[in-house]
Amino acid sequence: MIPMTYGMMNQTTRILISSIFEFAYSAFDGFRTLSKQEQTQLVHNFYPFISTLDSAYRMHKYLPERETMCLVSYASYLDVDTIATFLSDTPNSRYREEATRMMNCYLTNEVRPMREKMKRWNPSEDEFMAFVGISFWSLERTIVSEQVHQMADKYREQLLRELDTLYRDILQLDYYASRMGEALLFLASIQGSFFEMRSNLGVLKLMDVFEDHMLMAQLHE
Fold this sequence. Notes:
By secondary structure, the chain is mainly alpha-helical. It has a single domain, classed as Retinoid X Receptor. It contains 8 helices and 3 strands; from the N terminus they run βααββαααααα. It has a 3-stranded mixed beta sheet. Strand 2 and strand 3 form a beta hairpin. It starts with a strand and ends with a helix.
């Protein structure tokens, strides 16, 4: 893996968005019946969920000792010791010191606690994938049509039933309410992290450290 730079962000974000579309098309038949606008809205809503879920899960599995490190793409990462590399090609270096402080705070105060929550949850691969699906249909942050709401309710109920079967019949857990609670708490914490990220990105744009056309910032608006 290589350290992420600002100049790489738009390309890696576009690749992730494309991958989300492919995931939705293959995982949910109903997604294909929606309008292009509705599909795009769901994919954009899902972006912060999958970014955080995938990073926390893979780091927990493969590099648990790097507590403030997050994966920005499948082959690049950001950590407190690579912030200078990330900011090295930003368009404006005037506020780079303040940007460094903000990013350090985010990695320490948001990424590290998220990693701790993932450690407590410690999901199996099947469990993790079920919650990826559930989070795709988590629509608390967006306004959608009644048709999309009904579709979301259907898929969430289906995935929760599959989780129930996984816990009882495959993992053979008699009492799994607390485990389910840890997972739902993790998803809820992503919402809080989203708003913190949106605030930070807004400030960095105001300081002209990040440009208006930065795709990741647009996806947090």
